[in-house]
Amino acid sequence: MSTENSSDQLFNNSVKILTDLISFKTISGEDNSSLINYCDEILNKLGATSFKTFDDEKKRVNLFATLKAKKPSNKKPIILSGHTDVVPVSKGWSTDPFVATIKDDKLFGRGSCDMKGFIACTLAFAPIYAKANLDRDIHFSYTFDEETACIGAPILIEELKKRGVKDGICIIGEPTNMKIIDAHKGCYEYTTYFEGLAGHSSAPHKGVSAVEYASRYVNKLIELREELKERSPKDSIFDPPHSTLSIGGIFGGIAHNVIADKCHVNWETRPVVKEDGVFLNAKIDKYANEILLPDMKKVFPNASIKKKIIGEVTGFDRDEKSNACELVSSLTGDNTREVVSFGTEAGLFQEIGISTVVCGPGSIEQAHKIDEFIILDELKKCLSLLDGIKEKSVIN
After folding, report:
1. Does Transmembrane appear among the keywords (predicted)?
2. Which pTM value belongs to this model?
3. pLDDT digits over 191-246, tens only?
4. Domain 4-184+315-391 homologous superfamily, CATH
5. Catalytic one among 85, 195, 372, 378?
6. CB atoms within 10 A of CB 166
């Protein structure tokens, strides 16, 4: 940035925008259109072109906006990507979670680090990109419902494929303390529903207990979890090195003396490789359809087992020759690469051929917690990265 004054002004503008963004209560699953319209207005005033994609109810929105190159070159376009949703707020906050509050060197508010801080920085820097003699396109990608199994991003990705946007460099600004993250496991979430036949507990042979069959289903999942450990790749970069499986909850039954006719199981797996997800689903589906369900139907022909996909977040694979990682490391001077346990939208962009890196301001240690905050200096580091991108994106 050219002068200390302009640098301070840019930082102050990012704080102002972050304050505005936090005030939008964009909890996952709820309407985020007001925030998207706010972002779209800022970018459109700068001459950006944009399009939106929606959920079925037209209340949750993705935005993809572009500041076009003044003189196109062979440089790959850059996508600055962030999700607009935040997790729900629990009790115990010392401040209003939807009012940005600065104390010492920290800015508190829901979404401050995960990940409205990054979005604020990109919007604050957008006027500088708009005035620059860009020789590559700069895209701004803001999605809905990332926190609930990346529901919004796949809709955007499909539209990008239709529009031929399948090359470039994408920076996902999740909170990493501006460190380069180049891989994470997938995250597949499911709910399996069991429907049996209610009856009096004194005659269990006349009913079909959905709870009991759900329990057998869970036991099978736990057996398969051990098989996933045996499938661990020899060169795995993750901790633990194998695909994991977790039972989130079993819900069913109404009383001690009533045979439960309904039950459901929430479970998830985090595969190291896609093949593990395919393996696990094939095994558990076969067990449910060929072992459990026929047994249930002997007593109650209308018994059912139905598995619902809540979300299947694509894993993010390490690429030793990543253009995205090389760009970021050239700007930060940090050549280290790390992996994380949480999921992001990175794998979705990577799947369509876009070189992707996860790197953004703030710490994941503060995400999803009471009194979430971002250290203000992290915003300055992010703005410095965006400035470096500008220097590499102007006509020589």
Report:
1. no
2. 0.90
3. 999 999 999 999 999 999 999 999 999 999 999 999 999 999 999 999 999 999 99
4. Zn peptidases (3.40.630.10)
5. 85
6. 13
85 is annotated as an active-site residue: yes
Q: How does pLDDT run across 240-290, given as a tens digit for each residue?
A: 999 999 999 999 999 999 999 999 999 999 999 999 999 999 999 999 999
**For residue 268, which amino acid is it?**
E
Which residue, chain included where needed, has tokens 């304050």?
19
Domain(s) of CATH 3.30.70.360: residues in the chain: 187-313
Q: Which tokens in the block code for residue 266?
A: 């929430």
**Planar angle of CA 237, 149, 99, nearest 5 degrees:** 105
Q: Are strands 106-108 and 373-375 parallel, antiparallel or unpaired?
A: antiparallel
* % the chain with pLDDT above 90: 95
* Number of CB atoms found within 10 A of residue 56's CB: 7
Q: What is the DSSP string of 170-198?
A: EEE--SSTT--EEEE--EEEEEEEEE-B-
Tally of residues, the chain = 396
CA nearest to 382, candidates 172, 204, 241, 225: 172
Residue range 187-313, CATH number: 3.30.70.360
Indicate which residue of 40, 146, 147, 317 is catalytic: 146
The answer to whether residue 326 is catalytic is no
